[in-house]
Backbone:
């Protein structure tokens, strides 16, 4: 059943490739705007790189959140999914995993290439990728709570951003600090471990909250 | 079901509703628009919490049964639950897969033919007409092996042949000891099973 939901969401994403690509292009463009607008000074670029990439990743992930449940809600498949004899927890986990694969993994893969624009060293690029790899699932997980809560509301896109962005702050801080530490030549492991801990926590609690929010929203 | 009450917003739609349905019975829910038919059906599906009263399935509250209850329930609502981007056959297979039935492509094709969707199996559902989408949604009834069917206004936008098809599906279901709760304005004359009717007042 778990594999059915993932398969379904992946096929749907493939049939709507434009949505996925627009998220990726948004990320690329936002990150590229900074070197163009601030200054080409390599030292300055290096120091703002972690923050810029991470903030862009946060904003880009907001774009795809709205679609997580709303399409299913509108055509009635969400009701059907709620009535399947599977634990809702697993279904939510499956949907979030599919969303992460489709919307976030391309960003993670693109980040090192964008990092080169900022003159980051190879070592730092690795740390950047690892931090995004640990941090972006948290964005999907926490975002799913917001998406479920605002289901069926008008103007839910902005509301999701207001609800969810403050909750993203720990991820942003630890993620950017890890890259910062690597640029400064110190060990980023502490920050990465904290990111891992946040991931573990949200993996346990976020789907549970999302389930509750979904049940309220369909009522 | 026990003294069921429904309040939507600040309006009391119905209260003190008591009924029970046994195997092989068709329960038709009728009443004017806005009288709470859909709300009642959604309560029976545990999608909506009753403002008062409890709904029991085989002696146990459906709220505590949870997923166990859903193994014996099939619900078709106003919205078809059909994904526009998926083809007819994918829609049917995914819906079955999520309900724990691994439907082979061949079997799916056969069911779609029985539902009068021959030649449309590979078409994305967005290209199907309203009635065809409804037929596609109803195809799930031919796949599922559940005891309780809850059907909300499923006969709308169906032609005569499809209505007959649905009736025969329900008849077969009742013959097998299933039960069906149907909200509709149309007359349902079936040749099998026993028949109950609830008329909700506005």
Residues:
């Amino acid at each position: 059943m778990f594999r059915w939901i993932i398969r379904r969401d992946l096929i749907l994403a493939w049939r709507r490739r434009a949505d996925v690509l627009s998220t990726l292009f948004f990320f690329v463009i936002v990150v590229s705007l900074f070197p163009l607008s601030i200054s080409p000074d390599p030292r300055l670029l290096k120091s703002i790189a972690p923050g810029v990439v991470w903030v862009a990743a946060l904003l880009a992930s907001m774009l795809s959140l709205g679609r997580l449940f709303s399409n299913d809600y509108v055509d009635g498949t969400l009701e059907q999914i709620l009535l399947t004899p599977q634990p809702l927890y697993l279904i939510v986990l499956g949907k979030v995993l599919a969303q992460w694969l489709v919307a976030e993994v391309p960003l993670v893969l693109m980040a090192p290439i964008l990092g080169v624009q900022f003159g980051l060293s190879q070592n730092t690029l690795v740390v950047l990728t690892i931090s995004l790899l640990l941090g972006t699932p948290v964005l999907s997980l926490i975002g799913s709570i917001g998406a479920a809560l605002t289901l069926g509301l008008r103007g839910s896109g902005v509301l999701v951003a207001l609800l969810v962005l403050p909750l993203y702050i720990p991820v942003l801080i630890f993620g950017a600090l890890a890259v910062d530490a690597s640029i400064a030549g110190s060990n980023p492991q502490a920050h990465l471990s904290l990111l891992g801990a946040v991931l573990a926590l949200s993996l346990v609690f976020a789907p549970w909250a999302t389930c509750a929010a979904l049940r309220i929203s369909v009522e | 079901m026990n003294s069921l009450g429904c309040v939507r917003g600040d309006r009391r739609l119905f209260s003190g509703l008591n009924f029970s349905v046994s195997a092989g019975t068709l329960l038709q829910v009728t009443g004017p628009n806005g009288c709470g038919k859909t709300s009642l059906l959604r309560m029976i599906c545990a999608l909506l919490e009753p403002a008062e009263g409890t709904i029991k399935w085989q002696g146990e509250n459906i709220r505590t049964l949870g997923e166990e209850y859903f193994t014996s329930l099939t619900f078709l609502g106003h919205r078809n639950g059909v994904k526009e981007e998926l083809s007819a056959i994918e829609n049917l297979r995914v819906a079955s897969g999520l309900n724990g039935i691994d439907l082979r492509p061949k079997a799916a094709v056969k069911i779609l033919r029985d539902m009068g969707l021959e030649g449309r199996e590979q078409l994305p559902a967005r290209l199907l007409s309203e009635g065809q989408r409804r037929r596609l949604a109803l195809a799930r009834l031919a796949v599922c092996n559940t005891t309780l069917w809850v059907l909300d206004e499923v006969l709308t936008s169906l032609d005569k042949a499809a209505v007959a098809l649905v009736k025969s599906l329900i008849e077969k279901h009742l013959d097998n000891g299933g039960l069906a709760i149907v909200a509709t304005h149309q007359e349902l004359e079936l040749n099998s099973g026993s028949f109950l009717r609830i008329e909700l007042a506005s």
